[in-house]
Structures are given as structure tokens and as C-alpha cells.
Queue: 2 jobs
Job 1
Amino acid sequence: MTRAPIRILVANPNTTEAVTERMLATGRVVASHGTELVGHTAPRGVPYVSSRAEAQIAGAVLLETLAERASGFDAVIVAAFGDPGLFAARELFDVPVVGYSEAALVTALMLGRRFSVVTFARALEPWYAETIEAHGLSGRSAGVRCADRAFSSVETVGGEMEDHLVDLARRAVEEDGADVIVLGGAPLAGVAERVKHRIPVPCVDAMAAAVKQAEAIAALAPVAPTAGRFARPPGKPSHGLAPALADRIAGG
């Protein structure tokens, strides 16, 4: 039986187009034949999300994006580590929505008992730790290791910090007992493939994991829930929202 092509919307809640393109390039390397990845970069917000407040902003923009663009896709990837707006999107839309960090962490659990997240900025640590907790995985986490140096651009941070990220990963293994390393942060898409042979445990690329998890869930063709914690909420009027999102909240 021939499998129907799968269309996946890669919705970047950050405003850096170059990061979207990097994620798409990384995802297309691992995508199955016939899978189409379509990117979208947030039209407003911040270059990369690194705080709770920025995550709230990014999540709201994500909901607008999905209200306008999700129709016709088999799955959506919330393409920012920390998954801003993920649970709200699952509640509001019928299409399966996969979180970038969620996919990476779930994949890591299939490779070892405890994972560590390694990322490029110290400011990300509180939010990433809370993301792990929100997914119910604190008991499997060996912690978040953060770079302690400046970088010149979010577009080039993966290359700038490659050696430092490898050093942090090795320390997470040796000092924290990590069985798996997850490279956290959309700007690090593609780095795992370059460095995985320098790290003594499996290293997960979040974008690659998100694509494969999205393909798997889309192939399962789950029905939209009508009960449970992610059932569609009752419709209600709103004021001042983007028209497509207002229509969705109203029950359209």
C-alpha cells in the first residue's frame, strides 16, 4: 500500500528567518520520502525566546499562525525549544501538534535512562528546566547545562560554540550521569550530526526528532478529542484578536 504524502508545518515562534531555514534543512535530511516540510517564521516577537515573558508572547503569535495556516497540514511542529503555546495549540486545533523540546526529550527516553539538555545561553536554564517539568520528565532529567560565554549572532551560534557545547556535553555525562544529550535551542539545529561522534553517549537533534515524531503521529491519523484534558473548549466571543484566531475561539 502506498503511503499518502505527509505535510508538516514547521511553525517557528521566533522571528529569525535564518533559523527557520536551518531547521528546515536539518529536518529534510531525515524526513521520509514524500514528506513535505513547510516553514513559517513569526511575523513579530523576538529573535529567539529566552524567558517566560517572551514565551508567552511567542505562544500567542503561534496561535494566530496556526489559525491562519494549519489547515491542510497533517501535523504541526512548534519549532522552538521550550514549546511556547504547545498545550494551548493542542486544545484549540484538530491537527496533531508536536513540541520541539517534547519530541527531543521523548526520543531521548528511548535511548537512555537520564538525559541532559545542553544549550547556548545561561538565560535559557530556568525556562528549559520548567519545560522539562511541564512535560513530567524531571525525574528523568540530569539537568540543563548552559554555555557561559557570549556569542555574536543567534544565526551563527551553533558554529561559534560547537567545541564549547561538546565540552558541556561531556561534563554532563561525566559529572551529572547523563545517558543521552539533547542539544536545546532551535539555532542549534544540525549541530548534533556534526558533533555526535565526539560525545560518548547518544546526542539528539531536536529538529530531527520532531520531524520523525510528527511523521509517526500523522501516520497514526488520530481523531480529535471530544473528551479529556485537550478537548476543544466551548466557543465564546472575543475582542481585538486576529480574525482567524477569533473565529477559531468562537467555535469556527
Job 2
Amino acid sequence: MRITGFLVFVTLVAGCSALQETAVPATTALPVIRATETFRPTTTPPNTPTAAESVELVPEVCSPLAGYTLPELVGIVVNPYHPPRLGSDDPHQGVDLAQVDPVNGIALTGMPVQAVLAGKVVGQAADRFPYGNMVMIETPLDGAIAASDPALIMPTPLPERLPPGALTCPDLNVSPPASSDPRSLYILYGHMQNLPSVSLGDPVSCGQELGMIGESGNALNPHLHVEVRVGPSGQTFPSMAHYDPSADYEEMAAYCLWRVSGVYQTIDPGCLWGSCVIP
């Protein structure tokens, strides 16, 4: 399916249990975002299509679940997008989708999870709380996507650094990106049944299978958690965890950068299938 001019305006865990904060481990270094450094991800120059190429390079949007069209997704949302205040880790920062048995009302496992947009794998987690088995895919907001609809680069970067929130986080010492910095759309797929079928750095096509619906991590029943953010291009999240004594410094730093730093700004995944919640 091809969609032109779509607006993308993204949160965590339908049927998810309440989260409890844990103490921050005092050991190990933070290789991804160091406390003594200002966050500046590496980037590559954007591709600028010619006029002829722009006609052909219309971004394709695919259903995140096999067997459902984009319009049908509205009917299987079991926990909608509920955007948080800036810097908060509550309430629900994505959309949860589930296949429910029509007879007994039980959510089912095993439906294939698919990539919504083409891109590159930049994040993953192996049954780490709260996302469980997770994969994240980056799609640059340049070239075909930017040419298709300039609104896709929204929201604009925050003008200043957010104050510390209630979540226990390492000192990231990050600053919001400049308005001229390249940015990307990042889509996270959580609570999958098994480890994702793709690895860090892999290219991914629209509609490519990533795994199966499950209930790993902070999930009370099987569902797919889809979370979408706009942020600086080129960042990777080799693992991500929080609210668990086993979460190390690097995993918590990645979680805090993604969830509460303000550098990666949440938008509603439902905008992809025509059901937006605008903060």
C-alpha cells in the first residue's frame, strides 16, 4: 500500500502493569551517551532526489500486523496513545494492537509483526523489561519522505533542555538537536514472542516480517506495542531496560534517552493509519 502526504503525529504497553522505579547501579561506564559529553549522533548527508526521482519515491506505509489492512488497525487497538507531559515516563506513549479471539475474548500470540516503513535496524532488546523482545527501525526524514510531506519532520526540536524528571536516570548531559540537524523517524516494536528476526544494522523493507506478537517484558497479555518518535539521525540503541535490578547503566541511559530526555519526541503511531491523537 502506498500513502502520500500522510501525517505522522507517537507510546508504552497495553494491558501493561504499573512500573516501579529501581536504584541506579553505581558501576560500569556509559558507552553510548557519556555523562561528560554533549549528545551529537553521527550522521550521513541526506539524499536529495531529482524531480524525476521524487515522482517515483513515494513513501510506502505497511500494516504492522500481517492479515490486517491499515484501516482495519483502528478496530484492534486495545490501548490507545495517551501522550505524556514532557519529561514524564507516563502514561502510554504508543499504541497497543492485539488479535482477540472473537469467541472467548482472549488475546492471541503468534501473528507476524511487520515493518511499517523501510529503514535500518538501530535498536533491539532480548527480553528486557519493560519492552521485552524489541526491535527499533530508523527511517531518515529526508529524500522521498521529506519531499512527500514536509509535515513529517514535525514536531520541531525543543528549544531548551528539559528539567530532571521523577524517573531515576543516569546523567545523560544531552541537549536538544539544532533545527538544521538531520532527523529521523524511529519506530519501536515491543513485547514480541521471540527475539526479532533482524539484527542491528540490517536494512528492512516495508512489510518485512520482524517477529511475532507475544507478551514478553511488561505485558499482561499478548499484544504488539508500537512506539514512534522523531529525533536526531544516526543513534543506536544496542539494548534498553529500566525498572529492573538487572538493568545496567548503559541500558538505563538508552531507555531514558528514548523515553524522557525530550531529544526523541513522541508522536502517535495511529496517524499512519488515519487515527491521530494530537497532544
